[in-house]
Structures are given as C-alpha cells and as structure tokens.
Amino acid sequence: MRIDNLELARYGKFTALPIAMPQAKRDFHLIVGPNEAGKSTIRDAILDLLFGIETRSSYDFLHPKAEMCLGAKISHAGSTLEFQRVKKARSLIDPKGAPLADNALAAFLGTADRAFFDQMFGLDHDRLVTGGNEILKASNDIGRILFQSAAGIGSLGTVRDALEAEADSLWARRKSGDRAYYIAAEELATAEAALKRATVKAKDWTEARDKVQAIEQSLAEVKTKFEALERERMRLERIRRVAPSLRAYTDNSQQLATIGEVAVLPANAAKLLGDTESDVAVAKAQQDISRKLAHEARAKRNAIKVNVDVIRDADAIESLAERRQQTTFHERDISKRELEIDGLWKGIQAAIRQLGWAPSDEETLEAKLPPLPIRRAIAGLIKQHGGLERTLVAATEAESTKRRDIVDNESELERNSIVAVSPELRASIDAALRLGDHPTATTRERNKVAKAQREFRTAEAALGEWRLDLADLRRLALPPADVAKRLRSDYEQLQLDQRKWDTKREDLVGEIAALALEIDQYRASQLAVTVEELATARQTRDGLWTTIKNGTRSLADGADDYEARVRGTDDLSDKRHDKAKEAAELQSRIDSLARLRLALKDTEQRLAKIHSQITGVESDWQSRVTALGIPSMPLLAFDQWQSALPKLFAAADAVDLAETDAAELQESFATAKARLRVALGAAAGPLAEDAEIDVQVATANAFVEAATGARARREELSRQIANASAALADLAQKTITANSDLGKWNESWALATTKAGLPNAAIAPADGALALFDDIDNKLKSIREVRKARIEMMRRDLEDFAQQARALAETLAPEMNERDPTDISTELSARLAKAREDKTESDRLDAELKGFDSQIAEAQNKIDIAIARIGPVIKLAGTDDTDALRALIARSDEHRALKSAADAGKSEAEANGDGLAMKQLIEEAIGIDIVQIPARLSEIGRDLAEARDIQAERSANLATASAELGKISGGDEAARAESARQEALSRMADAAERFIKVHIAGKLLRWAIDRFRETKQGPMLARASEIFSGLTLGSFSKLVVDFESDPPRLDGLRPGGRTVGIAGMSDGTRDQLYLALRLAALEMHIGQGHALPFIADDLFINYDDKRSRAGLEALARLSEVTQVIFLSHHNHLLPVVKDVFGGSANIVELDRG
Amino acid sequence: MKFIHAADIHLDSPLTGLSAYRDAPVDLLRTATRDAFSNLVSEAIDESVDFVVIAGDLYDGNWKDYNTGIFFSREMGRLNAVGIPVYLIYGNHDAESDTTKKLSLPANVHAFGANKPQTFRIPELKVALHGQSFKHAATTTNLASGYPSPEPGWLNIGVLHTALQGYAAHASYAPCSVAELSAKGYQYWALGHVHEFAELENNPWIVFPGNLQGRHIRETGPRGAVMVTTDQDSIVSVERVFTDVLRWHRLEVDVASASDVVETVRLVGQSLEKLIDDDPTTKPLAVRVVLTGQSAAHGDLFGDEGRLRAEILGLSASLAGDRIWVEKVRLETSPAMDAADIRARADAIADLQVLLDAAPTDPALLSSLSEDLRHLVDRAPHELSDLLPELKAIRAGELGPMVASIIPGLVAHLVKAS
After folding, report:
1. Is A1003 close to B346, i.e. CB distance below 8 A?
2. What's the topology of domain B2-242?
C-alpha cells in the first residue's frame, strides 16, 4: 500500500495542508522542515489516518476533536481509495461525505493494526539507539538479536527473563524457604503435625472412659468408710452434748411427783383478780355523773313550743313572697304602656289628615284601608311601568336606525362603479416582477462583470511583464511540455551546479586566505626559513659580490653592504638549519596553499564552463521566447507563466459571459417596461414618458389594488343592504309588541286604583298613598300588640297574687284576711322564720339527752365485762371468795414452775439430739460412760483423717482422668488442623500450577528463538551484512557468525580480516548494525507480506554527510519495494537526497509557522 | 406435622481448594460443616419439628477424629432436650467408620440396622419410617427392594442412601430406580448420597436434599436440608432450608473489552459488586473468578497472573471485607488475535508463531520439559494430583496439550510486551 497524497485538512496546527507523494521508481519522500514545523504531527497523522484518530489525541488544540479531519488517496495492487478520516463513530467517509464501511481500508492494510504498523514500519532515532543497546545486552545470543531486530521490539529478553525468574521463585529442585511451593510445603507439614496431635481415635476415648469409671468406683468405697466413721463420731458427740439436758428433765419430773394433785389455774390468775376489782369501781362513778346531766337537759326541751302549721305550709309562704317580688312594679308599667298607645294613635290621625279622610275610630279606620293584595298589585304595576316604556323607546329607535343604514348603503352602492383589470396588465406586471428589482439586478450583474474583470486582471498580472494581446496569446504556439521541462531541468541542474561550485570557490578563497594568514603568522612566530628565502638571500649576496668584482660598485661603497648580506645569509642558513622541522611544516603549509590555489583555479574553470553552459541554455531559450513575442522571459519563470495562461483564458471567458449576461438583463428590462406601459395606458390612461419600470410597476399595482378594493366594497355593501332589509321586519314587530304591552298596563292600572279608592290617580300620588296606607296599618298593629301582650298580662299577674295571699291567710291567719295582699305575705314570711328557729333548738336538746343515756349504758357494760373476765378462774377454783381464791392461785403457780423446768430439759435434749426422740436419746445414753467419750472421739478423728486423704487422692485421680476424657469432648482442633492442611495443599497447587505454566512458557520461548536463529540467520545476515558494510562506509566488510564460540557469536569483519565483537563496536556502529538488521528484516517481510509505507523520523541525527548518504542509499533500495517517507529537520540532507535520488525524490518543505 | 430431612452432613470434612492469604476469613471455613449442622439442629428446635431424618453420611469415611462423633452426639442431645427424635441411616461413608461403631448416642436417636430393613413407628403421629443402613461402604445391592410394604393409613417414609441409577458421577451404591421407589407405595422417600438438591418426583415425593455445606468449587450455590410438612397421611409441601455458612460461587467475567490488567480488574470489580448486590443473603462467599472472552488483555494476564490475583484480592477486600474469599482466579481468556491472525502478520512474531505451532509435537522439546517437570511431580504429595490434574498429565508424559494451551498466551504476552 502507498499513500498517493495526504491532506491534513483540520489536524493539529494545520488547516488544509496538502502533501502530494507522487509515485516514482524509488518511492522516496523527504519531508523537511525546522523543529516545530510539524514533522511529528505528520507521522502521527499517518497513523491516525490509517487506524483512526486516537481517543485522547492531543492534536485537537486548534480544531476540536469533532472537527478533526484527515484526507488521503491511497493505492494498492491497482486499486485506489480516496477517503477522509474524522473523529466520529463512522470515522471513514468518502470525499462527498458519505460514510464508508469500517473495514474499507482492510484490503489496503492487510492484517496490520496500529501497534504493528508503528512497530514494523516506523523507525526513529530513539528506537535506533534503544535497538543498538538491546543488541549489546543480547550480544551473546544471536537468536535474540535477530528476533528483536526483525520484530522491531526489545522486550524478548525481558519477557523471557521475567518468566524464568518467576518460575525460579515458585519451584526449583533445590528446596528453599524463599520459594512459594516450599513455603506452602512447610505449612503443610506443620498442619499435618497439628492434625496428628489433635486426632483422637475411638479406642483412645474408650480407654479414657474406662479409667474414669474405675476411679469413680474406688472413690465410692472410701467415701462409704468415711461416712461410717463420721456417723460414730457424731453419736458420741451427741451423747456428750445432751447429757446436762437429760439430767434437768429427770430431776424436775421427780419434784412434781412429790407435790401431788393441784387445781391448775391460769398463770395470770392473780393479776386478773386485781384488775377486776379496780374496773368495777371506776364504772360505777361514771354512771352517777351522766344521770344528773340528763335530767337538766330534759327540762329545757319541754319548755319549747314549735308552730308546726307554718312549717307545714312553708313552700306556699315562700312562693307567695316570690310572687310579691315579681309584681312590685306592675302598676307603674301599665301607665307607661297606655301613654305609648296614645302616641301611636296621634300618628294615625296625622296620616288620615294627609289622605284627606275624616277623623274616625279604630274599627272604622281599619275597614276603610284598602286590602293588602290591592296595595301590592298597585306597587307591582308602578315597578313594571318604567321597563315597558324603555322597551318601546328602544324598539322605535332601532327600527329608524336600520332604515337610515339601508338608505346610506344604497346611496354608496350607486356611487361606486365597476373597474375592470385586463389580463394583459396582470401578465405585464408579473413579467416585470420576475426580472426583480431593476437597480439591484443591474448592480448584481455589474458586480459580476467587475469581479470577472478583477479576476482577469489578476490572471493577467500572473503573466508578469510578459503580456500580449489576448488573441495573440490564444494563438501562441508554445514549446512542447517535455522540451520546456527538459530545458528547465537542465537549467536548474546547471544552476544547482553553479551554486555548488560557487560555494566551493568561496570556501576555497576563504581557506586560501586563512592558510596564507596562517603561514605568515607561523613564519613570524617560528622564524622558519624556507629554501626559497635562503636561495634568494644567497642570490642577492652573490649578485652584490659580482657588482663589486666587476667594478660596477666600488669595494669601499659595497663592502659594508656585502658584509651585511654575508651575515644575513649566514644567519638565514643557520636559522634554516636550526629550524629545519618548523621549516618543513611551513613548507608543507605553503604546499597546501599551492594546492588550494590550484583547486581554486580548477573550480573557477569549472564555474566558467558551467557559466558558459548556462549562457548557452539562456541564449537558446531567449531565441525561443523572442520568437514567441515574449523576449527576456527567464526559463525558470516560463512554467509559472505558462500555467497562468489557462486561468487567464478562463478569466477572459468569464468576463465575456458576465458582460453578455448584463446586457441581456438590460434588454429584458426594456422589453418589460414597454409592455407594461402599453397595458397600463390602456387601463389607467397614459403615463409620464420618463417613468422608470419600478414606478410603472408600482402604478400598475396601485391600479390593480384599487380595482380589486372597489369590487370588494360593492360586494360588502350589497351584503349589508340584504342583511339590513331582513332585520327591519323584526324590528318593526318589536315596536308593535311594546305598544301593545303598554296598553295592557294602563287597563290594569285603572282597575287597581279604583279598587283602592284612588280612581284615576297618577303614578306618583298613588305611590305616596300606598306609603301612608302601610304606615297606618303598621301603627294599628302596634296598638293592638301593646294592649294585648303587655297591659292585659300584668293585670292578670296582680290578680293571681291577691287570690293566693287571701287563700293562705284563710288557713294560717284568718285575722288578716281582709288586709292588703302584700302585708299578708310579709307577715306570713316572718312567722315562718320564727317557727324554724324553735324547731332547731328542740332538736339539739334531744340529741344531747341521747348522748347521756348512752354513757350510762357504756359504764354498765364495763362492770359486766370485768366480772365476766374473772369468771373462769372462779369456776376452776370452785369458789368466788376472794381470799380463798388468792391461796389457790399461789399453789397453782409453784406447780407450773417445776413442770416448765422439766419440759425445758426435754426440749434442749431433743434440739441437740440430731433429730432423735427423747426416748431414743435416753436409750442411747444408757450404758455409756461419759468420761470415756473424749478418748474414743480422738481415735475416730485419726481414722477420719486417713480416709479423707485417700478420698482426696482418688478425687484428684478422677479429676485427671475426667479431664483426659473431657478433652475428647467434641472439640474442633483436628477439623481446624485439617482445614489448614487443605489450605497449604491449595497453595502448593497454586504454586505448582503457575510454575508449570511459566516454566514451559520460558522454555518454549528459548526453544523457539533458537529455531528462529537457525532458520533466519542465513538470509537475514547476508542482506544485513551488505547494508551494514554500506552504512559503515566499508569500515566493515560483512557480518559473520563465530560458530567456534559457545554460544555462537555475531561479529563484524574488518576489510583486513580482523573481527570485532558487538561489545567492541562503538555506539554509532551498533546503531548502524541495528539499522542494517531492521532494514534487512523489513525487506524480507515485504517480500512475503503486505508492504506498507515505511516512516523514518530523523534517523541520521548524528551522521555526517557521508554516513547520511550511506543511510539514504540503504533506504533508496527499500524505496524500490515500498514507499519511504523520511522526516527530517536537517536541511543539509537536501543536496545529499538529491544526489542519491536524483530528480526522483519528492521533497516537501514545511515552514515553522 | 412437619419434619426435617437432611443427608450427607460430612461433619468435619474440610473445604478444599482455598489457599489462605492475608486477611482471608480463615476462621469462617475451618468449622464450616459443623456450623452448618448446628444451624440444622437450631432450625429443627426453632421450628419445633416432630422429628428429623438423616439419610446417611454423617462423617467422612477416612476421618479418624472421634471428637467429630462426640460433637454429633452433643448436637443430638440438644434435640433430645426438647423431645425431638432423630431417625438415621448410615451410608457408604459412615458404614466402616470407627466413630459409628463406638459412639453411643442419646435416647432420641434411632439408627436403622444394617442387616435387614427396619421400621420405626411413631404411633401418636401415625408415621412409619422404613430404612436400612449400609453394612459396608461398598454396598452395591438394591436395598430398597427389601423395604417392607407401607402401613395402611399411616404416613410411610422410606429412608435410603442410594446413588439411584443414572447418576454417573457417583458409584452405584444401593442402586434402584425412581420407578421402583414410586411403586413402593410410600408417601415420601428421604434419600441421601447425591450432594445436589433434587426433587425427583412429587407423587410420591422422592427427594435428595443435597449436602448441608458446599465444600469445594464443584458444590456451588445454596446448600441445606428440606422441611417437609404433612397433613395426616399426605405430604403438603417440601421446602428447602439453607444451613450453609459459606457459599461457593463461580463468577464468570467476560473481559473481552479489557486491554490490560487494570481494565480487567475494573471489570472483575463490577461483577463482584453485582454479585454482592444481587445476593439477598449476607452469607460469606468463596468465589472462583473465571475470566473469559477474546481479549486484548490476554497477553498481560498471562504474564502477570500474580499481580492480577493480588489486585483482585485487594479489590474484593475493599468491596466486601470478609464477605468474599477469592478461591482462585482462573484465566480462560483467549487472545484478541488468533494464531492465523498472527501468522498473517508475516513478521518475526509470525515466524515465531509458526515455529511454536510445531512445539506441542516436538519430541525433543517435550522430552526435555518432561524431564524438568518430573522432579516436581515425583516429590509432590499424592493429594496434590487431585487438586492439579496437570501433575497426572506430566506423570503420564502427556505434555503436548499443555504446551499447546500455553502458546497463545505466550505469543500474546510477547506481542503485548512489545
């Protein structure tokens, strides 16, 4: 695949930068420009063009990503594709903007992806240096060198080393604590040991359980013995403990038997007797006091007489008193109401006077007032009358307005005549309008003409000073293109040569001047004497001697001079001898100067020859151009001049066309103007002669608009007349209806006023009479209301009060029956208060009497209780004699004391007898000698201690055995250990698995690279040898493999047969070796794969011209099989490129801007 | 009435394939099978079931520690304390276990005899349980055929440890067919031995409850027993009860879109987050991360497995703390460019690919590799072969496929490294 042309339409700093890459036999393109000119941008642009603009592209600083665009035409195997790459989902589009398939480039790129293309077909200075370094690192591994150089990668060694190092960190035959596998194996061993320790077999558990059971049995035996001893010890302790209590029991029991039978009285009998006697005496004194107080109270109560009749009728008396309060102001109120009625009646009399009626009483007046329905009917008619009148007036007005409108519209219709617009007039207007606005169209056409003329002048200016008449130019028989091209090529070459030799001449002149100066300075500083100087001195000396000898000069005159010359010559001779080395050096420089002068002469001769050739070519050219009529046109200007001609012709044609268009437009306007004038004249009368077409069009439009407006107005008037005529009938009917309604009202009015006693009354008087009727009616109603609801009700209340008072007086105080009811009520209320007071005092004395009776009874009760308390003692003693009773009580108390002592002895013995009954305790003590008990207890104590020790020992054994058994209690230590063991196994498996993978991978890589070397080293090294020799300018004749060394080693072979190992090569030479290998591999790849453009970015930074030339020559061969794009910022490469590639190299120069 | 049917408890059987790393939740897995069993017993107590059926394989056959039996007995004691009886048979794993022979169990535990089929009756529930334990591990006779006829009017439950027929992955222990069990006339067959839950029939019900706790990556998903609810003499429902304390999960992550380790780890992170979000429980997960897809990252992943694993471990710790144990990170990716694409480049890499294509059949190379690796294989513990099939292949001298499987990764790694 090759790129025919590339355009950085919107990319980085570039806008519409075209780069043409025409194909030549050597498909080499030098893109040269200073730093910052954009060479790297072009390299990245090619990558982005072919494989898509990168997501994070940094070339969007001028054109945003969405607008970035690259264009190209590419070709491969006879197919071409012109496309653009943009930063969108469908990033490939054709020149018309239609999207292309994503794989549209597949046929051109093969399987290459971005990384592969960049790696295989891209090379820059940094990669060259890195490649050289990698060669050094891999100097003892030819396979690796060949592979890395061929693949364009430097990571093979790193990858292989990493794989081998990882394998070594995982496993190796030698056990090591650093290797993952062995670390895990160690953990496995630890876990297995833990598992072994923690695992308990069923048999272990059975044994442990049997041991516990045996110990438990022997422990039970010793416990039994211990318990028997303990029981004996307790028995003896008990006997000793209860012995005093048993004695107390038996002694007191014997004394009781001595006393004999006794009437047993209660222990408190003596106290009871004393208490009874005291209680009876106190109660009797209390009874006497209470009886005396009761007598006095009874006398007071009998003296009070209560009026019970008044109390019985208390409610009626209180009700009467309340009625008295309510009616106190009734008489005064009745007087006020009667005055109110008088006031109302006076108002009625006044109203009667206004109506003009005669004075009359209430009943007559009521009969004379018109009934309410009549009054309401009159009021309704009054309200209705105004509306009926307004309706009639409105209907009448509407009817007359409508009639006026009809008359007005008919009048306007008559005035408004019909105006016709002819089709010709309309067509004329349309024709004029289609031409557009006359001044604008005219200006537009004039501008077109002016623009075409400007472009013509620009095209004409491109001809420079060599201008001819256009017709002559068109007829001009120009020299054939190939002839002109050849002449130009020759001329350019001659000029290039002339510049080159000029530069050379200038260099030589400079060098000569510098060397001459250097010689002078050397001579001055070293005082060296040349052979010529010495010979000259001798010659001068000898010449002077000859003049003295032949008498031309006298001895006296010439002797001193001669002696000075002899000394001078001798000095020079001595100096020359002393400074022989410096003289040789000086001589060498003088020789060099002579050679330079010779070279300068040669250069000047060459320049003269070139100048002559240039003059020849120029003369030939001048004769040709003079014949053409463009004398003095330089050859180099001809191409540009010639290429300007088609543009000039095209511009001239464009001027013709624009002028024709302008003229045609004016003609069209004139025609349209004449036609419109005729049509408008026929319709609206003649126009002014000088009226412009736009005035004509405006006049015609106004005429057409007026005619159209008049027609529309007539139509509107006719429609309005028809509508108004239809509406008039309705309006007339409304007037009639309104008149009729008013008539009906008048009839109703007459009838209602007559009924109301107001015959033929007008509306206003009738309305006033209605108000007076209502006033009279309301006042009459008020008079009736006061009389009935107020005065009569109060009089009834006063009557009821008097009746009630007399009825009560009849029962309770007949003597007052004839008195004023108010006095009766007041007296009865006083009697009721007195009766109530007497009743309260009587009740209080009754209560007091009841309390005294109760105290007397209570004292009697106490006497009875005291006597009853001593009753049982008397009964037991069989006597109620107080002294006898006291003696019997003393005997009973003695018996009781003895009995208590005996019982206490028994209780104590039983309490300390460990639960044994008295009988058992007595029996247990029989036959026991208390004195012997301590000795026996001592003996038992020793036996017990021994048994306790045995028990403790066996308990300890049991605890140990139980603990052993307890350990086997379902614990999870073994399970945990097994889990840890599985984890260790897993880690071992992980380590082993990864080891197997990386070990095999590492070994595979080593194996494959060996095979690669075996298959590739022959052809690749053969081609690389050739390139390397060229690149090193023959300093190495070829590359050889030293199979004698182990492993085989790659060496460079010097022309003299000496070999130089890679380590012995300089950095630059290693870079060249890498370049040789890369280019050889690339040629081989292109031979069997898909060729893509090779992009070399400033490869020869550190090369001088000779080595650069050698490098370019290597690339020249590559450019015969694929396109080579060489990016450089070294202008000095230009002549070298031209020299190597001749005229076939495409050179693109970029500006910094 | 309701009862729990469990099987294949494999107490104290270890979880395998997990290699510990710093911060890994080690304690969680050390007693996983015990904890799962305790969960089962707690469930039975909490739900007040009427009885529990265990259809064999309480312990691993080769497990020697008697503590396991005692632990079992203690757990049975918890059921005894609340009056829940247990009916169990011994399976191929228990049959020859010392623990089985020596351990005395609480009174509520009723083990079916091994000499002939036996029936336990629960009169108050009118339930008859028929079963027979394995006498030997290799019991390959049909035990079910000898089971008695059903008790009319009672709920008949057959308890059987069997590989059935057609479960090719299992040895043919106590073989019988589903049809045969169906025809027996029981209402419920409580089976054991197969570790995956399976409801083979529902009239009558024939159920494998699966094992209580997954123990390796081949036993993924939730594990436990079944809760069976009955209505007089018929089964109303069979519902799974999950007892596992750690769940195994195989997480496949398609990394086709990744171009390097970082992007791969990012994709794994997204999958892990989704896994955590989608899991309604909070149970810890042992996750095998399997990377798949034709990916430009294949070369990087091949060359940098260690870094990949470390980054995924770190990621999982940051996302889920103790909740996720990354069991393994397995590469099943393939390179973005296949061998044909590589060969079409016609460059040095392509030459290398062509040379490597011949490697799996190159006798000298294979022999040399075999010699290198034999030292590893010869000294490796026997159990390692179970975890790492490659060791068996090396032992058998079958290195060709292994070599062939490594080549694409190697080439991709080389291309990527350039």
Report:
1. no
2. Purple Acid Phosphatase; chain A, domain 2 (3.60.21)
